[in-house]
């Protein structure tokens, strides 16, 4: 119950304070004095029904509104399908398109087909991520999302330039399974400062570009994941369309983690998801269909990475390039080491 105190207008009570009488003991003077004191005291407050005040009106200083955890959203088949399709075509398919399409169509001193794929990816992916955030039933931190999107676009653009040059070097004999200085076409360059320039290019491609690209990417997915919980267990089921998309989505995340060399970032995101699921379960909340799709995709990705590592565990050449504790070879390094030699042998026959 709210109480509202209404004071009378000042002009109605002030005159009673300044009425002067020469005799302070006269009845009229006492009555005027009592009237003045009464005017100074606020009248008693009267209750106002709380139903008259809308709960949706924002409070002062822009306080956040209370979230309704009972709200759920259906499976976003259109967004997840477009997201998976463009990941496969524009990200995984760009180096393949660059190799398959005739070199006469895209000279080495011009952007390749893969570069145009990358440009389209840099525009479409942020748009789809923003649409995912918009469809979340929970109000998510917009400022963090916008900063992440801006950083994502900047990192992907840096990677576009470095990756374009590095993949064009394949036509000149560059071998991805070797380091920059160990490559035959690089180690004999004169002056030697040119080698430093190629190492800087590799750093922008594989380290700075990947970090500014993938950290915001996984952060946005995790922010979206925080809004994928519902108290209704009937909503915690995946439709057939989600099950069909889980395989291609998981396989792409496997390629993303292995080729991008971001296993630590991926595993920390996965652990954060598991911790959030267990925490929300104590509150009686379960994942909805969108959350299950994302969570199961990450689980299958971890299985695929484990199979990949076990398969190439005894490869001495790849072991030399990835000498650290975490041994996860890149698919393109495997291709240039084994598959390209196999194709060359077939062509010689």
From TrEMBL:
<dbReference type="GO" id="GO:0045121">
    <property type="term" value="C:membrane raft"/>
</dbReference>
<feature type="transmembrane region" description="Helical">
    <location>
        <begin position="207"/>
        <end position="226"/>
    </location>
</feature>
<dbReference type="GO" id="GO:0007042">
    <property type="term" value="P:lysosomal lumen acidification"/>
</dbReference>
<protein>
    <submittedName>
        <fullName>CLN6 transmembrane ER protein</fullName>
    </submittedName>
</protein>
<keyword id="KW-0472">Membrane</keyword>
<dbReference type="GO" id="GO:0045862">
    <property type="term" value="P:positive regulation of proteolysis"/>
</dbReference>
<dbReference type="GO" id="GO:0007601">
    <property type="term" value="P:visual perception"/>
</dbReference>
<dbReference type="Pfam" id="PF15156">
    <property type="entry name" value="CLN6"/>
</dbReference>
<feature type="transmembrane region" description="Helical">
    <location>
        <begin position="145"/>
        <end position="162"/>
    </location>
</feature>
<dbReference type="GO" id="GO:0005769">
    <property type="term" value="C:early endosome"/>
</dbReference>
<feature type="transmembrane region" description="Helical">
    <location>
        <begin position="116"/>
        <end position="133"/>
    </location>
</feature>
<dbReference type="GO" id="GO:0005788">
    <property type="term" value="C:endoplasmic reticulum lumen"/>
</dbReference>
<dbReference type="GO" id="GO:0035727">
    <property type="term" value="F:lysophosphatidic acid binding"/>
</dbReference>
<keyword id="KW-1133">Transmembrane helix</keyword>
<dbReference type="GO" id="GO:0031987">
    <property type="term" value="P:locomotion involved in locomotory behavior"/>
</dbReference>
<feature type="transmembrane region" description="Helical">
    <location>
        <begin position="291"/>
        <end position="313"/>
    </location>
</feature>
<dbReference type="GO" id="GO:0030203">
    <property type="term" value="P:glycosaminoglycan metabolic process"/>
</dbReference>
<keyword id="KW-0812">Transmembrane</keyword>
<dbReference type="GO" id="GO:0005730">
    <property type="term" value="C:nucleolus"/>
</dbReference>
<dbReference type="InterPro" id="IPR029255">
    <property type="entry name" value="CLN6"/>
</dbReference>
<dbReference type="GO" id="GO:0042803">
    <property type="term" value="F:protein homodimerization activity"/>
</dbReference>
<dbReference type="GO" id="GO:0120146">
    <property type="term" value="F:sulfatide binding"/>
</dbReference>
<dbReference type="GO" id="GO:0008203">
    <property type="term" value="P:cholesterol metabolic process"/>
</dbReference>
<dbReference type="GO" id="GO:0001573">
    <property type="term" value="P:ganglioside metabolic process"/>
</dbReference>
């Amino acid at each position: 119950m709210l109480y509202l105190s209404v004071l009378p207008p000042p002009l109605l009570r002030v005159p009673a304070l300044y009425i002067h009488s020469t005799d302070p003991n006269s009845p009229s003077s006492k009555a005027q004095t009592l009237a003045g004191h009464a005017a100074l005291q606020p009248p008693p407050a009267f209750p106002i029904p709380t139903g008259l005040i809308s709960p949706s009106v924002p409070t002062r200083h822009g306080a956040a509104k209370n979230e309704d955890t009972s709200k759920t959203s259906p499976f976003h088949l259109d967004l997840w399908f477009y997201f998976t399709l463009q990941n496969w075509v524009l990200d995984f398919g760009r180096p393949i398109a660059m190799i398959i399409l005739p070199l006469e169509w895209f000279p080495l001193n011009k952007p390749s087909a893969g570069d145009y794929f990358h440009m389209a990816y840099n525009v479409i992916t942020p748009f789809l991520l923003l649409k995912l955030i918009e469809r979340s039933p929970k109000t998510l931190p917009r400022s963090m999302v916008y900063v992440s999107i801006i950083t994502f676009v900047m990192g992907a653009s840096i990677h576009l330039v470095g990756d374009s040059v590095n993949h064009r070097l394949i036509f000149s004999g560059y071998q991805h399974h070797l380091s920059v200085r160990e490559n035959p076409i690089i180690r004999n360059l004169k002056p030697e400062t040119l080698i430093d320039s190629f190492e800087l290019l590799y750093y922008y491609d594989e380290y700075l570009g990947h970090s500014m690209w993938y950290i915001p990417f996984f952060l946005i997915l995790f922010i979206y994941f925080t809004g994928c919980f519902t108290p209704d267990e009937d909503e915690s089921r995946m439709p057939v369309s989600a099950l069909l998309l889980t395989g291609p989505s998981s396989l792409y995340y496997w390629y993303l983690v292995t080729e991008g060399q971001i296993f630590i970032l991926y595993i920390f995101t996965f652990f954060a998801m598991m911790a959030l699921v267990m925490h929300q379960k104590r509150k009686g909340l379960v994942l909805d269909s969108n959350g299950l799709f994302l969570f199961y995709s990450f689980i299958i990705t971890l299985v695929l990475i484990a199979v990949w590592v076990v398969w190439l565990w005894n490869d001495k050449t790849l072991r030399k390039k990835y000498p650290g504790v975490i041994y996860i070879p890149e698919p393109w390094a495997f291709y240039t080491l084994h598959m390209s030699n196999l194709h060359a042998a077939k062509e010689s026959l």
